[in-house]
């Protein structure tokens, strides 16, 4: 990365400071959702870093997204689906399966938890696991 060969972390930090660059991690991120007109890219527990260069903040999200179609309940999807046939209400199948797998619960328990947190899989998993004692899985 540095001209003339490999540098160490300290040299990299000094160079970034001279260029007016600053990085800082964002701790405790549970979920990042990137919405397009037709899809949602959902990152569960990603690493997020903010890079500030001359006052401009850029967010870097590192993780593997789950890509799913937009849900009927989101405002942009409602506008895009105007005139289209109604979609059955409820969380996406992928979210139900994720909660079942990660929390070790039945389909009904996963659906109940997802409904209680407005369809957010990470929150549903945390809700289920927080009700249990250590070692109950």
Brief synopsis:
With 137 residues, the chain is α+β, with helices and mostly antiparallel strands.
Provide the descriptors you would attach to this structure in a database record:
137 residues; alpha+beta; Ubiquitin Ligase Nedd4, Chain: W; 3-stranded antiparallel β-sheet; 26% strand; elongated
Q: Could you walk me through the main structural features you see in this protein, from its secondary elements to its overall organization?
A:
This protein is α+β, with helices and mostly antiparallel strands and 137 residues long. The protein has 2 domains: 63 residues, Ubiquitin Ligase Nedd4, Chain: W (Single Sheet), CATH 2.20.70; 48 residues. The protein has 5 helices and 6 strands; from the N terminus they run αββββββαααα. The protein has a 3-stranded antiparallel β-sheet with strand order 1-4-5. The protein has a 3-stranded antiparallel β-sheet with strand order 2-3-6, with no helix packed on it. A hairpin with a 3-residue loop joins strand 2 and strand 3. Helix 3 runs parallel beside helix 5 and helix 4 crosses helix 5. The longest helix has 11 residues. The protein starts with 8 loop residues before the first helix and ends in a 6-residue tail after the last helix.
What is the count of helical runs?
Answer: 5
Can you identify the CATH superfamily of the largest domain? Answer: Nascent polypeptide-associated complex domain
Helix-strand string: HEEEEEEHHHH
In percent, how much strand structure appears in the residues?
Answer: 25-35%
Question: What CATH architecture of the largest domain do you see?
Answer: Single Sheet
Number of strands: 6
| Helix percentage range | 25-40%
How widely separated are the two ends?
45 Å
């Amino acid at each position: 990365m540095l001209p003339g060969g490999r540098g160490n972390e300290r040299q990299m930090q000094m160079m970034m400071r001279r260029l007016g660059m600053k990085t800082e991690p964002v701790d405790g991120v549970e979920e990042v959702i990137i919405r397009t007109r037709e899809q949602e890219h959902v990152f569960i527990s990603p690493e997020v870093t903010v890079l500030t260069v001359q006052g401009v903040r850029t967010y870097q999200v590192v993780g593997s997204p789950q890509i799913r179609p937009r849900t009927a309940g989101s405002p942009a999807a409602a506008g895009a689906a105007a005139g289209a046939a109604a979609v059955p209400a409820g969380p996406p199948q992928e979210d139900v399966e994720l909660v079942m797998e990660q929390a070790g619960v039945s389909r009904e328990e996963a659906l109940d938890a997802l409904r209680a947190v407005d369809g957010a899989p990470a929150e549903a998993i945390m809700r289920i696991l927080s009700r249990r004692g250590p070692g109950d899985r």
